[in-house]
Amino acid sequence: MILVDKMLWFLPPHKIRVISIQIFSPIDSKISTSLRKKWMIASFLSLVALGGYPQDSTNDNQALGSKPVKKRTLSPLRLSNVPAQWSAYWSPDNNHITYTDWTTTQENGKNREWNWDIYVMESDGTDVVNLTNHPSVDIDSHWAPNGKQLCFSSNRDGDFDIYTMDSTGSGLTNITNTSVDEFYPRWSPDGHKIAFLSPQNEKMDIYILDLRTRSSINLTNHSANDSDPSWSPSSDKLVFTSDRDGNQEIYEIMIDGTGLKRLTYTTADESAAAYSHDERYIAFNSDRDGLGPKRYGYVQNYVMKSDGTESKRISLVPTGGNAQLNWSRNDDRLLFSSWRGGDRGIYTINVDGTNEQRISPTTICDFMQITLEQDATTSIALYNKARLKDPNALFFTGGILERLAFELMDKKRIDEAIQILELYQAEDPDSESPQNALLVAYKLKGVDAPPYPKEIVNMILRNFNEGMVSLRTLMDRYPKWYLVNANELLELSKFLSEEGKLGNTLILLEFTLEKYPENTKVMDALSDTHQKLGNWPKARYYLEKILKIEPENKKVTQRIEVLKSTN
């Protein structure tokens, strides 16, 4: 586990790679005051490249056995800003998987904020159910060995506490209810204990809660950061991650605190160890093969003997990484989460590295794939079908949609780009990116362009500096297709001038002249604005620029003479 001296915000995503327990602030308003003072919240996201990359994992020890996993098709679509399915664990009855994902709440038909909830689905990825569906942050679910209950962490009562509930979502009970924060609960195979994490004394330790007495002990109690507890099948020991020797390695410890043993010895970061059911092997995550820059999170799945020897890599994900391993009951397959090129999903794989299958619901990346490989009509039909099932589901972020649209434009598929963008614009008319991309698409198609994007205008009027940054970025990014013409910018500058915002008017007009250096109307407006500000030399300067382009312009000549006499 890694602690940092500031919160890691999920948006915008930064190129930060953190293995094991992560510092995480999913929703600002829901973070406890005590944790702000301690600089940390334990959860299971690391932020990689363009999105979040969770890396918490441990062994369920009651996992899917012989039931075959059906290969999924490309429908139905799962609608979400950024796919974030993680912390996935098989149930003891071989039929279900619990995991953490985010949802959105809506206000007046618009998405208001993201929210983390606990889900359960069939082991083939179908019949997804939101069990918690609560405005708090609910994360880190794990099965009881009887398969009838789940434990998870939630801040619904203020600080993060450990809760249990029935596998249907009923029977909610706060089993810690303390003034400190507890995370990452893991139910022991014998059903009597729950291991969890708590960031006391500004470090993370592993605790064990006895469910019969409701008393807990600090198992690790070390000055380093300890995380990722995972029970042995016999419930007499755990494997965990610790940075006590400099970098993150895998350790083993008896539940009475004795028998500490280091299992891995590398200069890489190891994490998320999980025992096989026969206790002969341990699966874990590592970047030890150096398959990519550490900050980009190229973390792979490995299996080693339970004494730490004979490790072998069983996955190769060149554009992302894996996390959250747990074993099938007969120890022939592993369940894990994977971040691949902007898409987070749940997968299974044979322990020899063969027969990898995705089993989580189809995501936005699949929408993009269907659009590019087939056509927009097909992908939109799948989208509409999904919306019928979940009217409140969130669609794309503007950035993702803009990227898809411009890729279609590059392929000369302008009509399809317009289809995608008009769909999104109808869903969220205030979003900036689809409107800007639509204007480009219309101009490429050779039809009358829609009016200047409302959102940019509103941004300039609401916050001039931010709006100008957006406008400049927009026009610099697409120099082949000026998204606004000089007349549109002049109209906006006229409005600012009438509002008495002459300084802002000058900035906008100077930007416009930079883009349209021969436009005499812009020069005239600049001269007029400087004259209102009493800057006669500048006013005369822009009129003289007009004369260089239009030497026979008598009106401008007369205005120059008037300014000379006034000055």
Number of domains: 2
Write the CATH architecture name of the largest domain. 6 Propeller
Reported for the largest beta sheet, the result is: 4 strands, antiparallel
Query: What's the number of helices?
Result: 13
CATH class of the largest domain: Mainly Beta
Distance separating the two termini: 70 Å
Helix content: 25-40%
Cross-sheet strand order for the largest sheet? 5-6-7-8
- Extract low-pLDDT stretches: 1-83, 106-112, 292-296
What's the pLDDT, averaged over the residues? 76
Helix and strand content put the structural class at: alpha+beta
CATH-level-4 superfamily name of the largest domain:
TolB, C-terminal domain
Amount of beta strand: 25-35%
What is the number of beta strands? Answer: 28
Give an overview in words.
The protein is an alpha+beta fold and about 575 residues long. The chain has two domains: about 20-360, 6 Propeller (Neuraminidase); about 365-565, Serine Threonine Protein Phosphatase 5, Tetratricopeptide repeat (Alpha Horseshoe), CATH 1.25.40. It is built from 13 helices and 28 strands. The protein has a four-stranded antiparallel beta sheet with strand order 5-6-7-8, with no helix packed on it. It has a four-stranded antiparallel beta sheet with strand order 9-10-11-12. Strands 13-14-15-16 form a four-stranded antiparallel beta sheet, with no helix packed on it. Helix 11 packs antiparallel against helix 12. The longest helix is centred in the last third of the chain and has 14 residues, at about 375-390. It is elongated.
